[in-house]
Write a structure and sequence with these properties.
The chain is of the alpha/beta class. The protein has helices spanning 18-30, 55-65, 87-97, 121-127, 141-144, 161-169, 180-189; strands at 5-11, 35-40, 72-75, 102-108, 129-133, 149-151. Helix 5 (141-144) links the parallel strand 5 (129-133) and strand 6 (149-151). Bound molecules: adenosine-5'-triphosphate (ATP) and nicotinate mononucleotide (NCN). Catalyzes the reversible adenylation of nicotinate mononucleotide (NaMN) to nicotinic acid adenine dinucleotide (NaAD).
């Protein structure tokens, strides 16, 4: 039987936006991956001390964003793990839980320059292929040179969670910058206002 090949997109998703959704669906449909799982990190090691919506709320927003897409799935596996959320530990945990799956690490190009500073980055790169979605304004040529790292050709998406939060605080519309259900939930709950 064919082993499912799963792309793992780790993120703070504070909040999830259309860039994340396009990235995840593009990877799930334009590469050799069968599906993409979006892993919500309670606490990125690089965002300690940053203002962050609660992990459950961020997970709910991710679930709303990908509802009805059977290639995408939201994972809260890191909620029960030690914080900050180290990706190598989660990869080990997922391999334990899903021994029949093959995993590929997905990330936006902005994360590549910092990857050598991740916990056990050498092991991450030795054990996993990394598919990278290009991001405007980033030059990650050095790390691109690693044989396991593949930058896919895909439309550039100049949207960030920081921009979404800034729009909400400024009372500006986020329509189409986030999926409709995500916008509705954010407005209903008054997040970032
Ligand atoms: N517009 C985008 N293009 C390509 N990759 C993206 C884009 N937005 C997010 N990503 C990638 O998605 C993953 C999770 O990102 P994250 O949740 O930190 O969102 P963010 O928009 O970068 O957040 P923030 O603005 O708060 O730093 C990272 O690998 C990041 O590089
Ligand atoms: O494992 C690490 O050392 C590590 C260092 C920095 C970031 N990460 C993960 O990368 C994802 C995106 O992080 P960030 O800071 O761009 O939101 C998030 O899931 C983090 O847990 C992981």
């Amino acid at each position: 039987m064919k082993q499912p090949k799963i792309g793992l997109l780790f993120g703070s998703f504070n909040p999830i936006h259309t860039g994340h959704v396009i990235l995840a669906h593009f990877m799930a449909t334009h590469t050799d991956l069968d599906a993409v799982w979006l892993v919500v990190s309670p606490q990125s090691p690089f965002k300690v001390g940053h203002e962050m919506l609660g992990e459950r709320e961020r997970f709910e927003l991710v679930s709303l964003a990908i509802q009805n897409n059977d290639r995408l799935r939201a994972l809260d596996v890191e909620f029960a793990m030690p914080k900050p959320s180290y990706t190598i530990d989660t990869l080990d945990e997922l391999r334990r839980r899903y021994p029949d799956h093959r995993f590929v690490l997905l990330m936006g190009e902005d994360n590549l320059p910092g990857l050598p500073r991740w916990k056990q980055s050498d092991r991450i790169l030795a054990e996993n292929a990394v598919y990278v979605y290009p991001r405007p304004g980033v030059d990650a040529t050095d790390v691109n040179a690693h044989p396991g790292v593949k930058v896919v050709e895909a439309p550039l998406l100049d949207i960030s969670a920081t921009f979404i939060r800034d729009c909400i605080r400024a009372g500006k519309s986020i329509r189409y910058l986030v999926p409709e259900a995500v916008e509705g939930y954010i407005m209903e709950k008054g997040f970032w206002r």
